[in-house]
Predict the structure.
Amino acid sequence: MTKLFDPFISSSDYLALARDRDRTGTSRLHEDLSQMLDNDYACGLNQEHVDVLIYPANWSSAVRDENRKPRAYLHARVNQKGNAEVNWARGDHEVVYENDFLARYVSAAQSAASVTGRGIGELMWWKGFELLVSNAIIRRSPVATALLYAHAASLNELASVIAQHVNLVGATALKFTYQDAEITSADFVATILPDRLREMIQERGRRKAATLREAVERMAKFDPEDPE
């Protein structure tokens, strides 16, 4: 199998490749990453949280009345502990369409830990991601490389599934750079053009400002100390 990431190879095939390489004993994986070689490992996918996102009952009445799909952006980032988080409601770009979902669902999704220790807006969690990247780049571990590719494929697969149910306006993918067919970097990148991403961030800012103005106006209207 080629050393370069192939987007047409599934995450399950890459995981199987990693287990095969581990069994040969030619490459050792850091012990803190050993759970990734378990047969039931699914690249940190939280299927229950995905099901909640695509369940129409959690969409706003405006979306249902207009007979359209809610908009969502798939964020991914590495946290301070070196783990990777994939989330639709929280991210560095803050592209969130709150009015397309029920308010209580958005509020819970934006919480870091709203259900059993993991926020309900979090769709994937990759424990030890930075360590995995280090094993693939610095130690040049074939097992780690296959696992890294499995996670990249799983992120693409998640975006594909979500896009079948909601209006996925943008997503994040794992991009690799190479030198002499060896990985030199693995970074999260937006799948849309930078100009479009900036527009979406600006739109988000305008929506937040409008919501704040409406809230202030409602408070002023019902202020008991109002001279009226």
